[in-house]
Amino acid sequence: MHILALTSACISILGAFMVITRRVAVHAVLYLVVTLLALACVLALLGAPFAAALEVIIYAGAIMVLFVFVIMMLNLGKPDRDRETEWLRPRAWVGPAALASILGMELLFGLRTLSGTGITFQITPREVGLSLFGPYVLMVELASFLLLTGLVTAFHIGRHWPGEH
Amino acid sequence: MIINGIFLPFPLFVLSVGTMLLLASVTLHRSSRLSFSLGLLTLVLATVMTYYPAPIMPLAATQTLFFADTWANYTAALILLSASCIFILSWQDVTQRSARSADEYALLLLLGALGATAMVFSVNYMPFFLGVEILSIALIGLVTFRSRHTQKGLEAAMKYLILSGVSSAILLFGIGLSYSVTGSLVFEFSTAGHETGTGIAAAASIMVLSGIFFKLSAVPFHMWILDVMEGASVPIAGFIAVVPKIGIFSALVRYFGSEPVTPFLHNTMSAIIILTILGGNLLALCQTSLIRLMACSSIAHVGYLLIAFYSPGHFQSDTMVLYLAAYTAATLGTFSIIQAFVSPEGLQRSTISDWKGLFFTHPFLAVAMTAMLLSLAGIPPTIGFFAKFEIAASGLEQRHYILLTALIVGSIIALYYYLNIIRLMTTPNTSLNIGQNKKTNLTIYSTVFILTLIVFVGGIFPSFFMNSIHPALPSTRAEYLQSHIPLP
């Protein structure tokens, strides 16, 4: 179990390092997905399956889609076909695929050997929800103010003013 | 106020309601005047609310998120008053522009004040971190509000975004490590784990402190403040110099309680304080822009404040209370005078040599500026003198002789650059023009007048500010909560 967690942690660090050294944004995003999946594995092995599921659903799922979408919007230089063939060269995806397959093997191995021996105490979504909207409801409200601030700031910076600039 | 056993300090409640009302009014009718009045009204109401005694809090000590003692109320009042002052200063500047942009300005200023107030009242890592983030993100937006040199504002905002993100990540990592050692998110320095020598507890404290020092702009982490303040408009530069620093400093005091700092941090704290005082003052020597100079002087003042924080004793709480008031009044005063010379087109006169001959053209502003600078330098009869005197007294009580030497050397260097500005103002030859609008002048003049009055009255009757506002210690806090929990 320790070995599995450490391997996942190493993969996440390696992936994060590759994210910041890639030159093409899409390649970086591929490594970022692997990093997030590795983090989810670490969380699951630490006994936080709900956090792991959120990591996969929200970060590797929703936020990555947003990233890819923004990259698509911004990369308007070359024709689409050229760009996509460049992105899909083996050199670009072999690295992330290898790391992801290591994670996948870990998962299969873990499913076979660790099932049944698993965690006795699990934090369920229900408990998370109860504590978020029970004692920590003010934190939810404060976080909503944080999001509001981010929204207003992004809206202000991202807008073009006629006559300014 | 308490709803279902959850405690929310009154000022935070007023600020949140005010923010929501402002949002609602923006959706119904866009008017810069209305937004600004609503924002100012909210801040004033929230300031009034800091005088209300906190109700009894019926929660176990471990679950408490907010705590209102006199220290939190005092620093919150300072933050809210400073934010109101910034509102008044930027009134003309922003309302002249289109209404839509003014709405966002008011909203972000209010949210920034909300973040700083949340920090001040928090006794848990969660509200503290959320407050820090609300304030930083609001600042990113505020820095870009500039009618001229929009590019410069964007550049400053970008720098602040990246550096503040890095420091928040370090802070968050520290909070995580601290949670792994203590198993609780209570916002206090914990000595648990330091004896075992695993290093995780030490790493946690160092990382949390790094995050806090970055936001305070203490010296190894100070590089952002010069560029960010220069890139921002004058009122926002004043906001950056005052509001986040009060909030973070208040939280730092809360973090350690007013107990002696643990031995393993002694060398770190001394090094940070000496570097901050000398670094800030030496950097200020070679500045030609007044705003950059004020940024450097604010770094140096953080160093002086940290001496007070590092010297627990009889003088500590009075010193911190007086020094925060003195620093806030003098800094806001200086920035209001700089704002008075911003031309209606948004052109800043921030080069120091522009200020030649101010005594002959604008005697009132020149006298006020002299008072502010003398107060910052710590010369009687201004409030800054007593503030610095108290710092020396509290340092002497704890026998921090090396730190006091740094304080003296730093003050001598500071005297040179503050007096240099006064010397330039008495030199004849001028090219300075005050903004054309008479109405702006009236608001700014009255703000300057009130701040000058505070600086002089505080200098003559400093006891007004010294009524022993102690931050509640974690132990007394627990006792207080214990004694007020209703028996089952």
TrEMBL record, chain A:
Membrane topology type: Multi-pass membrane protein
Organism name: Gluconobacter thailandicus NBRC 3257
Pfam families: Oxidored_q3
Keywords: Cell membrane, Membrane, NAD, Quinone, Transmembrane, Transmembrane helix
Principal location class: membrane
Function per UniProt: NDH-1 shuttles electrons from NADH, via FMN and iron-sulfur (Fe-S) centers, to quinones in the respiratory chain. Couples the redox reaction to proton translocation (for every two electrons transferred, four hydrogen ions are translocated across the cytoplasmic membrane), and thus conserves the redox energy in a proton gradient.
Family per record: Belongs to the complex I subunit 6 family.
Chemical reaction(s) catalysed: a quinone + NADH + 5 H(+)(in) = a quinol + NAD(+) + 4 H(+)(out)
Segments traversing the membrane: 28-46, 53-73, 93-111, 132-157
The protein's name in its UniProt record: NADH-quinone oxidoreductase subunit J
Record-listed E.C. numbers: 7.1.1.-
Enzyme class, spelled out: translocase
Xref: InterPro entries: NADH_UbQ/plastoQ_OxRdtase_su6, Nuo/plastoQ_OxRdtase_6_NuoJ
TrEMBL record, chain B:
Its biological purpose: NDH-1 shuttles electrons from NADH, via FMN and iron-sulfur (Fe-S) centers, to quinones in the respiratory chain. The immediate electron acceptor for the enzyme in this species is believed to be ubiquinone. Couples the redox reaction to proton translocation (for every two electrons transferred, four hydrogen ions are translocated across the cytoplasmic membrane), and thus conserves the redox energy in a proton gradient.
Top class in the EC scheme: translocase
Localization in the cell: Cell membrane; Endomembrane system; Membrane
Catalyzed chemical reaction(s): a quinone + NADH + 5 H(+)(in) = a quinol + NAD(+) + 4 H(+)(out)
E.C. number(s) listed in UniProt: 7.1.1.-
Membrane topology: Multi-pass membrane protein
TM region(s), chain numbering: 6-24, 36-54, 74-92, 104-122, 128-145, 157-179, 199-219, 231-252, 264-283, 290-310, 322-342, 363-389, 401-421, 442-465
Keywords: Cell membrane, Membrane, NAD, Quinone, Translocase, Transmembrane, Transmembrane helix, Transport, Ubiquinone
Name of the molecule in the record: NADH-quinone oxidoreductase subunit N
Subunit record text: NDH-1 is composed of 14 different subunits. Subunits NuoA, H, J, K, L, M, N constitute the membrane sector of the complex.
Entries under InterPro entries matching the protein: NADH-Q_OxRdtase_suN/2, ND/Mrp_TM
Family: Belongs to the complex I subunit 2 family.
Domain NADH:quinone oxidoreductase/Mrp antiporter transmembrane: 124-413
Keyword tRNA processing: no
A Pfam family annotated for this UniProt entry: Proton_antipo_M
